[in-house]
Structures are given as C-alpha cells and as structure tokens.
Design goal:
The chain is of the alpha/beta class. It has two domains: about 5-55; about 75-210, HUPs (Rossmann fold), CATH 3.40.50.620. It has helices at about 5-10, 15-35, 35-55, 55-70, 100-105, 105-120, 140-150, 170-180, 190-200, 230-240, and strands at about 85-90, 125-130, 160, 185-190, 205-210. Helix 2 (about 15-35) runs antiparallel to helix 3 (about 35-55), helix 4 runs parallel beside helix 9 (about 190-200) and helix 4 (about 55-70) packs parallel to helix 10. The longest helix has 18 residues, at about 15-35. It is globular and about 70 Å long.
C-alpha cells in the first residue's frame, strides 16, 4: 500500500463522527462486556460531549473562523490586470449522467468554480486553470468543471485542465510544473485556503489568495432563531478538520 492510499485510509478516522462513534463504542463495550464500568461511563460521556460541542454553532465557529479569516476575499485592483492565470482547485463530484453537470458537483466545488469564473472575467488577460483528477470516479474533476464553465460562457481557449492530481499536495506539484514562479490567483474554499497557500508557497510559487465558500458569515439581522446543535454545524467542523 502506497503513502497516498495509507493517508486516505487513516485520516478519515480523525474526523469528528468516527471519533465520536469510537468513544461511544468503547463506552458501550466497557459497560456491557467488561468489568470496567468507570471507563465505560467516561467514554460514553466523552462521546456525548464531543457530539454536543462539535455540532453547536458557537464552538464550530470558533474552530472555523480563524482558518477562514486568515486570507481576505479577492478584491480587484489595477495592479492585477497583468495576471494571466486563475487557478481553481477542484472539490468533490459524482459523475451521474442523469443529472446536469452542476448537479454532479458538490457545493464546495461549485462555489470555487463560480468564484474562479467571476475573477477570470475581471482579469482581461487571464485563463482558467482547472485542477482536479480522478478519485473514486472515472471522470476527472477538472473535466466536469470545464464542462460547467463552458456552459456558463467561458471560451474553450481560456480553459486549461490539470487532471493528474488526487489531493492538494499533488495539485501544487502539478501546477508548479505548468506555471513555475508566475503569479496566479488561487481559488479554493476559505477553510482550505491556509493549507493550500502554504503548500504552494513552499514550492516557491506566487499564489494570490481568493477564498470562497465561507461557512462563518456575519449576520446583519440580530434577531436570529436559537442556535441548536445540528448536523449542518457538525459538517462545518468536519470541513475545518479535513
């Protein structure tokens, strides 16, 4: 088993839901099968507290906000008019021919592509470099993004695909071989931007951050409904840890 396969096998065990289930499972096992009742109560309590904490908005926001706010949203200025590349890091998708291309992409991937197209239209000399290969799907993510971009009016001459990478680290190496040290706008989810910037900069590249898909937003309305724990918030925590 190579390093990539090992990483993909082990890393999901550190996500919130597997950790919570592990704690609860150990607790139930200790309570019902072993004489270690105190340990069982500890693990059940730990699992319950983790579930409440990681699915409650205020705590999830404290985890997510520092990651999302480290890089400001992209703002166009005249000094960027000569930038020639807008790089969009792909997200997840399922190539289901029953659905339109936009319905095959996950929400993070669609948000990244939409922001990439918006910035591409602000930069008159730019081309879109769509990055994402095959992972548990026969269609490269970049190819699906290109199909959506073309349907939204991006000319084919302005689309370049990178279809060999399987994760962010591989994307950085593949794109380095294509762009070298040329400056480019880097589009990815806000919660993912810090890690992506560090990987690209460690290779001597010159990315300009363009985070999108923010999960922590500042409400203008103060009279909001109660903030109960929810699966939606737990997903937010999962993405921050991922």
């Amino acid at each position: 088993m190579d390093w990539f396969a090992m990483k993909k096998l082990v890393s999901p065990l550190l996500y919130p839901v597997p950790l919570i289930l592990l704690a609860l499972g150990l607790g139930v096992l200790c309570l019902w099968v072993t004489p270690w009742k105190r340990a069982g109560r500890f693990f059940v309590t730990l699992g319950a507290l983790l579930l409440i904490a990681l699915s409650w908005g205020p705590i999830a926001d404290r985890i997510v906000r520092p990651l999302e706010e480290r890089h400001r949203p992209f703002v166009f200025h005249q000094g960027l008019t000569e930038v020639r590349w807008v790089v969009v890091l792909g997200g997840g998708h399922v190539s289901d021919p029953r659905l339109p291309p936009t319905g095959q992409m996950d929400d993070a991937c669609l948000a990244r592509l939409a922001e990439g197209i918006r910035i591409h239209r602000l930069l008159p000399r730019s081309r879109l470099l769509l990055s994402g290969g095959k992972l548990h799907d026969p269609v490269p993510n970049a190819r699906l993004m290109a199909e959506v971009a073309a349907s939204l009016g991006v000319e084919s001459k302005n689309l370049v695909l990178e279809t060999a990478s399987r994760d962010t680290e591989e994307q950085a190496h593949q794109i380095q071989g294509m762009l070298g040290d040329e400056p480019f706008v880097l589009v990815t989810s806000a919660v993912h931007m810090t890690r992506a910037m560090e990987l690209f900069q460690s290779l001597g590249m010159r990315p300009i951050a363009a985070p999108t898909g923010h999960m922590v937003r500042h409400h203008q309305e103060k009279d909001l409904p109660p903030n109960y724990p929810s699966a939606h918030v737990l997903l937010k925590t999962h993405r921050a840890i991922h």
